[in-house]
Amino acid sequence: MTVQQSGRRERKKAATRQKIADTALRLFLERGYDEVGIRDVAAEADVAVTTLFSHFASKEALVFEQDQDFEQRLAQAVTGRAPDEPLIPALRREIHALVRHCTAEGAAPIWRMIDGSTALREYEESMRLRHAESLAAAIAADPRLSRTALACRTIARFAIDAYPLARESDEPEAAVDEVFRMVEAAWDAAA
Amino acid sequence: MTVQQSGRRERKKAATRQKIADTALRLFLERGYDEVGIRDVAAEADVAVTTLFSHFASKEALVFEQDQDFEQRLAQAVTGRAPDEPLIPALRREIHALVRHCTAEGAAPIWRMIDGSTALREYEESMRLRHAESLAAAIAADPRLSRTALACRTIARFAIDAYPLARESDEPEAAVDEVFRMVEAAWDAAA
DNA sequence: GACCGTAACACTAACCGTTAGCTTTTCCTA
DNA sequence: TAGGAAAAGCTAACGGTTAGTGTTACGGTC
Q1: Partner of B18 at 20 to 30 A CA spacing, among A11, A39, B132, B154?
Q2: Does at least one atom of strand D sit less than 7 Å from the CB of A122?
Q3: Which nucleotide lies closest to A123 by the C1' atom and the CA atom?
Q4: A to B CB pairs, distance under 8 Å
Q5: Which residues of B touch A129 (CB under 8 A)?
């Protein structure tokens, strides 16, 4: 009974959040990330600076909106895979999907912007660290896999590493496969 | 032509740099990293804020003074190893030494401070990314190792990953060995 | 020994991301 | 429809960082 479906408040909140994110991305692409200030974004989105920061924890977070989606999808790839599917192929499939998503048509300008800003590159890296840690937790929680906690953390890091390595490669799809042959060998060695 | 070591100017510069670093570390440990401002450090070291920033690129850099040493030692471990020594054991030896250095007596308060600050943890992570890239370059430049450029970058990342994984482990030395069994398997798989 | 170029340092004043403190608006629910 | 809470707003600051502009002290040269 307590669950409210109509939720105008939630819709408005989501709309505000989306408007801020869209405005920010547009301005960043138009004028460059470093040339656009938080106050510019807030003014253009017609919200207060404090409102902006109640929706996004930092300026960089405006760019990596899908952050939490990625994190959940990775954990889901482990916990939600078919009962008989081994870990590594499931992870490879998910990383493949992520890489495809980021190398799709239209995403190029965004990644050019990210590569051009030290702050954004560092933020992305620390984001991946969080992803690796939640992935490690998901792997460690799987009763089918008998490995040490350290091995789980290690393989999580290795798998996440595949993502930037592939993105910076000439042939991202082939790169994922090449890196994952190494990941799989590492996982087998931890048995 | 010849490198002047005795130059009074260089000695004074080095002394200023050292005084700033020592003062900063002392204040950080006394009062906590977040509780000490750049202006505090500059005042206590008796230099101008701009002088501090001409020696250190950021507040975090004050803590990671040995940054470039680490980077050089890693590359050196590859390029300077015995002619018949394989890559992985040489890397393992160096990572062992680094881990021992960071878990030594007296280093504990510094690492407690680092673990307590998000800014410092993120800085350390981006530092490691730089280390991994220069290590990858050193590996790729070795004519004895016939691997793809991607495999070199991959194994460099994997090896660097061992360092934080070990530091956060209960038994750092054993952790290095465990992770490196996986690293070695990955490297063999890339042949 | 006087001279000049330059590296190191200093000072002011800001810029920019971020936050605290507090008020106003919106809208759920009882 | 009133009460209360979530969301948004405003002001003012804090702290890291940099630009602009001198000033000093050293090193090589004549």
Answers
A1: B132
A2: no
A3: C17
A4: 85
A5: 125
Q: Structural domain tally of chain A?
A: 2
Domain with A93 in it? 67-189
pLDDT tens per residue across span B62-75: 999 888 889 999 99
SS (H, E, C) chain B: CCCCCCCHHHHHHHHHHHHHHHHHHHHHHHHCCCCCCHHHHHHHHCCCHHHHHHHCCCCHHHCCCCHHHHHHHHHHHHHCCCCCCCHHHHHHHHHHHHHHHHCCCCCHHHHHHHHCCHHHHHHHHHHHHHHHHHHHHHHHCCCCCCCCHHHHHHHHHHHHHHHHHHHCCCCHHHHHHHHHHHHHHHHHHCC
Interval A122-133: pLDDT, tens: 999 999 999 999
Interface check for B58 against chain A (CB to CB < 8 A): the answer is no
- pTM comes to 0.91
Q: Do A151 and B122 touch (CB under 8 A)?
A: no
CA–C1' distance A50–D13 (Å)? 14
- What is the pLDDT confidence band of residue A9, given thresholds at 50, 70 and 90? confident
Same domain, A95 and A15: no
For residue B120, being part of any structural domain is answered with: yes
- What is the mean pLDDT of the segment spanning A2-11? 64
